[in-house]
């Protein structure tokens, strides 16, 4: 038998979660379209797999890499495709035109690249406004130069105004960003109506009034909850990735014996230790401390000591029926990735994205 670790990807759950995003985005009575955000190999779930699962369901796909976008087109996907970081090189402009890709434009040089390409058609763009995230996009002060460039360019088709929220999941909320967005949008000439795209998962769930024309759900598609204080199930989101493995050895240790590198865990009672075929080289976070929740044979227990490259240990003392070959769930069905992530001081996004290549993936 091969090493028992595998990631199971529930494609029906992915479709279900996409429709949950759409239903929240329609709470204001007007349906919004939704980009399925499939960047980072669909948050570690596999770009092509996710795209196939969402084909006929998703209104469009949003990602970063031009090569990935071209691969989707070459595989026959006809949905709109949005390039979230836009163009990096001038020669990418013609690829966008040829393959029907919509670039985000966040620097004036990108508009100039599009003009210089002298395309036979006008390229639709997403104009990114910096309303306070301060990563990408134009400020209010830069907008007049953008509009001058648009006016002389003749190379730009439909413009969608977008921004990205820094704290839709947090205490500061989105009001300050919405105010800045509104000021910037008002400067837009009435003669050229624009569509609007603001909301990520957190905003879709918490501020459905921000849905407008297009929303951009990412983590919620994969069943992750964008909020630390609630859980995915409370939004009826289903886990898509479940990381399974098995117990490959059991150690019975006496009080005072230690487990694993650094001897970080020391037994204070007779302890049954389960050794699991999963380590940080599989994508399990090395910084997950002892005490991180884990499921063995459907029952909750906790990890012991340090995570090694290929193995980690868990406590079987209270699970007398569990032993070698018992099934283990590291995260997913029955154990939310958000909970494991929180114990490890990170977020489910990072767990999903870190799933290692060596872990076989099966679709369910
Ligand atoms: C990644 C990303 C999203 C999706 O964010 P989630 O928090 O995963 O929903 C939306 N918009 C942009 C611009 C992004 O980069």
In short:
This protein has 364 residues and is an alpha/beta fold. It is built from eleven helices and 18 strands.
Q: What secondary-structure arrangement, pairings included, does this model have?
A:
Blueprint: E1 6-9, H1 11-25, E2 33-37, H2 39-43, H3 47-54, E3 60-63, H4 66-74, E4 81-83, H5 92-99, E5 101-105, H6 108-116, E6 123-128, H7 143-153, E7 156-162, H8 175-186, E8 195-197, H9 201-206, E9 214-215, E10 241-253, E11 258-259, E12 265-266, E13 271-276, E14 293-296, E15 299-304, E16 312-315, E17 327-331, H10 337-343, H11 348-353, E18 361-363
Parallel strand pairs: 1-18, 2-3, 2-9, 3-4, 4-5, 5-6, 6-7, 7-8
Antiparallel strand pairs: 1-10, 10-13, 10-17, 11-12, 13-16, 14-15, 14-17, 15-16
Helix pairs in contact: 1-3, 4-5, 6-7
The chain binds pyridoxal-5'-phosphate.
Bound molecules: pyridoxal-5'-phosphate
Q: What is the helix fraction of residues, given as a range?
A: 25-40%
CATH class descriptor of the largest domain? Alpha Beta
Q: What composes the largest sheet?
A: 8 strands, parallel
- SS summary, helix count: 11
Strand order of the largest sheet: 8-7-6-5-4-3-2-9
Low-pLDDT segments, ≥5 res: none
Beta strand %: 15-25%
C-alpha termini separation: 21 Å
Architecture (CATH level 2) name of the largest domain? Alpha-Beta Barrel
């Amino acid at each position: 038998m091969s090493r028992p670790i595998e990631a199971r990807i529930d494609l029906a759950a992915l479709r279900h979660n996409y429709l949950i995003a759409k239903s929240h985005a329609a709470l204001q009575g007007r349906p919004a379209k939704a980009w399925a955000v499939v960047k980072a190999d669909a948050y570690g779930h596999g770009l092509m797999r996710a795209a196939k699962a969402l084909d006929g369901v998703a209104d469009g796909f949003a990602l970063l890499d031009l090569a990935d976008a071209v691969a989707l087109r070459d595989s026959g996907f006809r949905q709109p495709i949005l390039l979230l970081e836009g163009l990096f090189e001038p020669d990418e402009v013609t690829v966008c035109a040829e393959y029907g890709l919509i670039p985000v434009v966040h620097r004036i040089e990108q508009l100039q690249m599009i003009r210089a390409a002298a395309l036979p058609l006008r390229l639709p763009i997403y104009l990114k406004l910096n309303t306070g995230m301060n990563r990408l996009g134009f400020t209010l002060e830069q907008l007049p130069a953008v509009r001058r460039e648009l006016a002389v360019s003749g190379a730009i088709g439909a413009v969608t105004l977008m921004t990205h929220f820094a704290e839709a999941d947090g205490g500061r909320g989105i009001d300050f960003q919405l105010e800045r967005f509104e000021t910037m949008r008002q400067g837009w000439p009435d003669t050229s109506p624009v569509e609007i795209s603001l909301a990520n998962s957190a905003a879709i769930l918490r501020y459905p009034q921000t849905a407008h024309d297009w929303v951009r759900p990412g983590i919620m598609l994969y069943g992750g909850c964008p909020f630390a204080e609630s859980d995915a199930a409370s939004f009826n989101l289903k886990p898509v990735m479940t990381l399974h493995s098995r117990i490959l050895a059991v150690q019975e240790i006496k009080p005072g014996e230690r487990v694993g590198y650094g001897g970080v865990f020391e037994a204070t009672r007779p302890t049954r230790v389960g050794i699991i075929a999963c380590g940080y080289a599989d994508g399990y976070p090395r910084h997950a401390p002892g005490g991180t929740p884990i499921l063995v044979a459907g029952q909750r227990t906790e990890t012991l000591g340090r995570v090694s490259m290929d193995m980690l240990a868990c406590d079987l003392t209270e699970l007398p029926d569990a032993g070698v070959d018992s099934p283990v769930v590291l995260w997913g069905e029955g154990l939310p990735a958000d909970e494991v992530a929180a114990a490890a001081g990170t977020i489910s996004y990072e767990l999903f994205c870190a799933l290692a290549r060596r872990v076989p993936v099966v679709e369910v």
